[in-house]
Amino acid sequence: MRLSFIAPRPKPFLSLFSKMWVIFIALMSLFMIIFNFYIVIEMSSFKSGVVDLTKEREMLELKIDEDDATIGLILRQKALSEEIFSNNTLLKESMKNLFDLVPDQITLKKVQMERNSLILYGISPTQDTFNFLLAAPLKSIFHTSNTNFYLTKEGWYNFVSINKIIGEDGLRE
Amino acid sequence: MNSFDRSLDKIDMMKLLIFLMVFIIVTFAFVFLLIIPNVKDHRILQAEYKRVLVHKTRVENLFFERETELSKLKAENVHVISAFKHPFMQEEFMRYAGKFFTHVSLTEITKSEYKKEFVEYELNATSTLKTPTNFYSFLEGLNRYSSIVQADFPIYLESDKESISATFKIKVYDLNATH
């Protein structure tokens, strides 16, 4: 016996209203999980970035140390070479000055240049020629200056002039 | 849509409140338990990353400065650097000295360490030359020689009939191989 005019319908477990809420909450949760996932991924990329940057920085610091050492070496080489080059130039100049100092009348036979002394052996026509033309400038350069003369058979004078500088600088003028 | 479902027409206030509560609880749970702590960590890590990046950039700039300085120094001192690297060879030096002197011979005296990273060789040079000008030219050219060489005292010059014999000390500087 039928008590109703309509056929019975199975009642859904969740009403449309409930389904909408459930889907809404699920979507919301999904969105939050995705957002969180994004943050976690970015965090791990930061972590690995920090490690990479630290390694790179340490490598650069090592290279800077190497560069500093090389720069130091080059500067020391430069300083030493400048000292040597100026010594060579000074030596050349002092030799040139010495030979320029010797007048035509006087002939040098032997020159011994030490750091603090200069010994000249040579021939001069007269003692005065030597004393006026060579001894005077030598006395102005050196602290002590002694000359001995020996008469030759030709009537000229062999001389030995010993000149010394007292001090540390030596013969570099 | 199910035409028989009237749940949207007649909203059950109780259900609505319950779902709203569930929504709020779930959202708050996510926000407070997951997102806020992670965002905090994220911020800390981001600050750390920026700090490390700034530090590295500074070091990198310093490195570029040093590289520029080094290449400038290298360019300015090409001759000096190559001269220190160039090993001193007696034959080569005698060939050079032969341009100025008619006869040259070298005898090695000492080899000693000089100022930490250099080696100093001392040699005695005996030579014969025609005029003192040759000696000046020799000393002048020494500064452009392929090794670092210094002519030093004592210098003995003795004139013969036609030539001058010169004996002098030369000091050669090389880089110490251990450095």
Automatic annotation (TrEMBL), chain A:
It comes from the Bacteria. Keywords: Membrane, Transmembrane, Transmembrane helix. The chain crosses the membrane at residues 20-41. The keyword Transmembrane helix applies. This is Putative membrane protein. The lineage of its organism: Bacteria, Pseudomonadati, Campylobacterota, Epsilonproteobacteria, Campylobacterales.
